[in-house]
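Supplementary Note 3. Input sequence used for the single-chain structure prediction.
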Amino acid sequence: MSIELLKYPLYVIFHPFNGFWELKNENKGKLAIALSLLFMLAISNIIKRQMAGFHVNFNRPSELNSLDELKFVVLPFLLWCVANWSLTTLMDGEGKFRDIVIATGYSLVPLVLIYIPITIISNFITLKEAPFYYLFESIALLWFIYLLFVGTMNAHQYTAGKTVITMLLTLIVMGIIVFLGLLFFSLVQQIVNFVSTIYYEIIFRV
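The predicted structure, written as discrete structure tokens, is reproduced below.
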């Protein structure tokens, strides 16, 4: 993997329209890099939640499970990609599932870049300086949303208005997927409990 490919995510966040267009049309986007960025964000998020200064960290590090923390990054990422792909397939979107994953992955760069620095800084700031922590975190989040907007627009060749509508509908579809998933697992659990009860009834009566 060349140095240029590794440096390209930085180019994308500062030149999003050209960057995302080249990701799709000039094949400069790499799935491995997008997934690496997701992994880096997951790790940096775990570090932030466990090691941020007590002024801004309301978690109990001793009670946090690192593997369990992955769901706060990996699950929303996968849900977004699946929901967006499912929706845009019905809305004449030109982006393939791979294009969506790459665009979403490259959009994560601001969060990847900011989490570790603000975690370190948070251990040296006072309570009065805590708003600066939230300011930098908010800037990175807004930057990510903007990049996701541009990436989605380029991936599907949508207008700005249709992209906004698509992103809002994607969030709704994500909620529906989560609801159906919980409903499915609840149903499976009830079936398992029912079968288990029948089994033990038969065992005790034989």
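The chain is about 80% helix and 0% strand. Residues 160-205 form the longest helix (46 residues).
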